[in-house]
Amino acid sequence: MADGGTQKLLARLKDPAVRARIKKELAGDHPDWENLYYDCGGGAGVLLASVEKPELKEFEGKTVADVARAWKKSPEDALMDFVIADSAQTGAIYFMASEEDIKTGLEQPWTSIGLDANEMSLDGPIFEPHTHPRAFGAMPRFLGHYVRDEHLMPLPTAVRKITSLPAQREHLQNRGLLKPGYFADVTIFDPAKIIDHATFTQPTLLSEGVDYTIVNGQIEYDHGKLTGATAGRVLRGRGYEPGAH
């Protein structure tokens, strides 16, 4: 569908024959591609997280079903018309995960945990009011909800899943462990208090229970306040080539 770039994508969405085909294909599952719209149960399961055009900002935090009601269109037409109106720049959140599957995955001894959220700000031009709550709450939710409250695993096992195990898998040299010669990346938290507060409607609510965050040996976060230290470094993979694009 996106072959040829954004402009060709938008042109296809305006073609009645293409739209009819899309509507038909959105209505069912497919063996050769993942139908997120279908897997989410339709427009009610797709949340508009970030919108580019100012005139469409009112729909941030709303679902495709909400847009359909406001525009008096079918959810499928509303979806395609919104993509056209926002020049295919809309970010979305899909509600399709199974809580039982999540718990099963977390419990496996070979799984490690990472985070694919972007760097976020609480204000300013890069502030995103309807981002995914994982950006501000993923690890506290894992440690507080799943480990402490749900008793999925012992705390040391959980800490390994978010520190040394992913560092070893990604071949991050001298990271992920507390030992001589390693970079001092340390989070000091209270296991009895740590918990997330971010939700899909209020995704920037901060977690609690973290006392200090130390990056490369410097304290950057101290009991709710940033210290101003900026000790972070870019971490390069083994395939990195300087000057390559």
Topology:
Blueprint: H1 6-13, H2 16-26, H3 36-39, E1 46-50, H4 64-71, H5 75-85, E2 91-94, H6 99-107, H7 134-149, H8 155-162, H9 164-169, E3 186-189, E4 210-215, E5 218-222, E6 225-226
Antiparallel strand pairs: 1-2, 3-4, 4-5, 5-6
Helix pairs in contact: 4-5, 7-8
The total tally of domains equals 2
Low-confidence regions: none
Which sequence of strands runs across the widest sheet? 3-4-5-6
> Treating each run of at least 4 consecutive H or I residues as one helix, how many helices?
9
Largest sheet at a glance?
4 strands, antiparallel
Helix % is 25-40%
**How many extended strands?**
6
Radius of gyration: 21 Å
Order of helices and strands: HHHEHHEHHHHEEEE
- Measured between the Cα atoms of the first and last residue, the distance is 26 Å
How would you explain this protein's 3D organization?
This protein is of the alpha+beta class. The chain is built from 9 helices and 6 strands. The protein folds into 2 domains: 6-94, no CATH class; 99-226, no CATH class. Helices cover 33% and strands 11% of the residues. The longest helix has 16 residues, at 134-149. It is elongated, with a radius of gyration of 21 Å. The mean pLDDT is 92.
Task: Give structural attributes.
two-stranded antiparallel sheet; 4-stranded antiparallel sheet; alpha+beta; 2 domains; 11% strand
Compose a concise summary of this entry.
This protein has 245 residues and is an alpha+beta fold.
